[in-house]
Design a protein that fits this description.
The protein contains 2 helices and 21 strands. Strands 1, 2, 3, 4, 5, 6, 7, 8, 9, 10, 11, 12, 13 and 14 form a 14-stranded mixed sheet that branches. A 4-stranded antiparallel sheet has the order 18-17-20-21, with no helix packed on it.
Length: about 350
């Protein structure tokens, strides 16, 4: 009997320490929303309690639980059509409100993805110029992950995209290069959000970006044709519980040296000292009743599309509702009768504007 119990214990411990496998069900899908906390890049070198982000291996533990949030963002994946790019069948997220290409300013810049059972890849680049939306498709897709994703997997693929020739766009933009994705570790990741089994992935995009245009100069036009390297690397810790990286460190590669410029990790709502809960954006004049037993009412003094997300205090989205308001004053109602009694957080989202709130369900 003791031998059987010991054998069972060994099996359980082996399963607990086994490496995970990432598939298409573990990466972003249309409709996904996740709250991410931002942390100081300086903490990577000054906080001695953090694991070095370059350290890795098999059955490794990365300790980033002492990271301190400096702000938060919401990642939202929507169908390309709801992002304004009706000619694309993919889904994606907005990366920039505006992007200055020196010779032109682009708006509503979006990365548009597709996925299937064999991979997750960049399908198009959504840009808007002079109110004209244009999804620029990759002629060679930028493959981010190939599935299933296992420890020691390594993949290298080429990609290319270019804007079409059109009188509506007085410039040309090309992007070509290759991406190398390596799974160089597995184990456990610890952040302020929690602890999860993970795969550690390093993905690097080696791109040459080119801009071509004609610049007016008096009665002449001067041709402009410049190309420049754009090398971007991401250290990612992927888990089975989140569609977004549990932790992601992004930066540029210059002369073979990685220079980090962003640290973000999956998190719950955080409220920062000295900032009122709704100080950044007030989208609703009133949210009532609070506490509530059945429903929440929102008085929103503007028209447009609004999304209301309800989350538990761990940041897990429990329900979402979308309203297309036509009037200058609107009352939107969300039924919360199905929620268990407790404290919940929520977000009202209109474009890039977000208002956070809390309420009590009795």
């Amino acid at each position: 009997m003791k031998i059987r119990l010991l054998s069972l214990l060994i099996v359980v411990m082996s399963c607990a320490n086994a490496q995970i496998v990432i598939t298409s069900s573990n990466v972003p899908a249309s409709g996904d929303t996740a709250r991410m906390s931002l942390a100081s890049v300086m903490a990577l070198t000054t906080n001695t309690s953090l694991t070095s982000y370059t350290a890795t291996g098999a059955n490794f533990t990365w300790s980033f639980d002492s990271l301190k949030p400096t702000g938060q963002i919401m990642r939202q994946f929507k169908s390309a059509s709801s992002l304004g790019y009706f000619l694309s069948t993919g889904y994606g997220e907005k990366t920039d409100d505006t992007l200055d290409l020196f010779i032109a300013q682009l708006n509503n810049v979006c990365d548009i993805y597709k996925k299937n059972s064999t991979g997750f890849y960049m399908d198009a680049w959504g840009i808007t110029y002079s109110s004209f939306p244009l999804p620029v498709s990759y002629s060679k897709k930028d493959s981010i992950y190939k599935f299933p994703l296992n420890y020691l997997d390594r993949d290298s693929t080429n990609f290319a995209l270019s804007t079409p020739s059109s009188s509506l766009i007085p410039f040309g933009f090309k992007k070509h290069g290759h991406r190398i994705t390596e799974v160089d570790g597995w184990g456990t990741i610890k952040t302020p959000y929690g602890t999860e089994p993970c795969l550690r992935v390093v993905t690097t995009q080696y791109s040459i970006d080119s801009i071509k245009a004609s610049i007016p100069l008096g009665t002449f036009t001067v041709p402009l044709n410049i190309g420049y390297p754009n090398y971007v690397r991401k250290y990612q810790w992927l888990t089975l519980t989140e569609h977004m990286p549990y932790l992601e460190i992004t930066g540029t590669v210059v002369l073979n040296n990685f220079i980090p410029n962003e640290v973000r990790y999956r998190d719950m709502i955080r409220y920062f000292a000295g900032i009122k809960e709704n100080a950044s954006t007030q989208l609703a004049l009133a949210i009532y009743p609070n506490p509530t037993t059945h429903q929440l009412n929102f008085i929103i003094p503007s028209s447009g599309e609004f999304e209301i997300c309800i989350s538990d205090m761990q940041g897990r989205v429990l329900q979402k509702a979308t309203f297309d308001n036509k009037n200058s004053i609107n009352q939107n109602t969300v039924n919360v009768e199905g929620l268990s009694p407790g404290i919940y957080s929520g977000s009202i989202i209109n474009g890039s504007a977000v208002q956070n709130f809390k309420f009590v369900k009795e």
